Structure formats: structure tokens, C-alpha cells
Write the C-alpha cells for this entry.
Amino acid sequence: MALPHELLTSTLLRARVQDDQGADHGVGHQVWMHPPTHRVLGWASRPTSFGPTRSVWRLNQLRHLQGDVAVVGETPSRTQQSTLDLLPTLMGAHLYSHDGLALGRVVDALVSPHTGAVGHYWVARSDPRLPGASRWRLQPNVILDQQPGRVVAAVGSLDDLPLVRAGLRTQALQTGQRWRERLQETTVQAGHRLEDWLHNTPLPQDHGNRGAKRRPRADSPDGDRGPGQEVWDAWEHPPHRQPSPRQDSESYTSDQEPWL
């Protein structure tokens, strides 16, 4: 199986190393590189879970990848972990802006397995071992200065770098921003439609009879009220309480008996 044109160093470190004879040499442990030229020279594997011995492989010893297995040729070089700690590398270095602001860490790199050239680095804001962390792309030509464990880039924040993979937090922020922009756009459109409706709607015309004063009804108390009378004077004997003519004819005097 042919090697891919590009692969991540994290993929190489997760693979278990086996030689042509099928002997197991452990899982990938560390990448060693030449930082000034941004080239990956090889990687080291851990043959056993315990012990300081490491197996160091050149990148051109990689034959092919079969799932989680990296098949290599020839024999490795044996060394100690203390020696590997002295090798320069940008993996795990802290990234700073040109103003000295801490941005994150360099956690991965996309390399060519044939030449070892680094296409770009991946930067994480938090611990790369946390699931759902975001990744930003850092081009080698953006790096201004590099020292052991420290990289300075010509950017002001992580927002100046292209986003490679959005994490849970970044996805939530982007979703909220899209909803705010959509709500603002809907509010502006509704305001424009309301302005157009108010502008195109004709105003009601006044025909001259709306300001006329209502005349009091003839049967209302105000209709037969004199100029010197009050409202309660007209209601001293309301119409529904006026005595009828029959009641007047049937009225009796004080010297008459009520049964006569």
C-alpha cells in the first residue's frame, strides 16, 4: 500500500510500529524534527511500557500504513528518553502573538512522508487531549521567532488563523453569532416594511361633519332644560316616575274612606 501524500504526525504517533518480519516495536511516542527548516526527520516508539529505552526511526524507513499499524523497514536506533528530550522540536511549544499574548500550543503538523516538509501546523487553545477541542492552522511563513518550547507568530489572536476543526465551544459561539445576525437582519427587514406601509397608506380625509357638535335629543334631560336650570332640576320628576292620569282620578282626599 502506497503512502499518502500528506499525513498528520498524530496519526503516525498513534500507530503501532511493526517491521517487515512482523516484530512489534511499540506505539509511537515522539516526533523529532529540524525546526529551522520545518522538516520532520523521524519519530520514536516505545518498545515496552516500562523502561527508558526508545526505538528511533527515520521517516524514510516508513513503508506504508495499514490502519493503526505503521510498517517500517530495516532496524531502528536505540536511545534513551533523556537523549530524546534534548532534540529540538516545535511539537508542544507554546504559541504567542507578536504582542506577547499567549494563544495556545502547537499540537500537530501536516507533513509529507516522502520529504518530511511541514505543510502547516495545528494549534489548540487548550489541552489537545481534551475531546472536542478546536484546531487552527499555522503556516510556517507566519512564524516570526522560535525557541525551545516557544513560538512567536505574526498574528494578534487565534481568530487571525484559519479554523481547521471547530470544537464544541467554537461551534456554540458560531451558532449563537449566526442566530444574532439572523435576528438583526429580520428586525431591519421588518422595520423597512413597516416604513413602506406607513408611507404608502393614504391618510383618512375629513368631510367636515366630524367636528360638528352633537345636538341633544328632544327626550333627553338636556333637551328641555332652561338656561337657568341644572341637570338635576330636570330629573326631579323623571318620566318613568311621573303619575299617570288614572292614578290622579283615583286619588282620594283625607275625609274619604279608601273602600268607598
User: Anything to note?
Assistant: The helical segments are 9-14, 81-84, 168-200, 231-234, 245-249. The longest strand covers residues 24-34. The two ends are 137 Å apart (CA to CA).
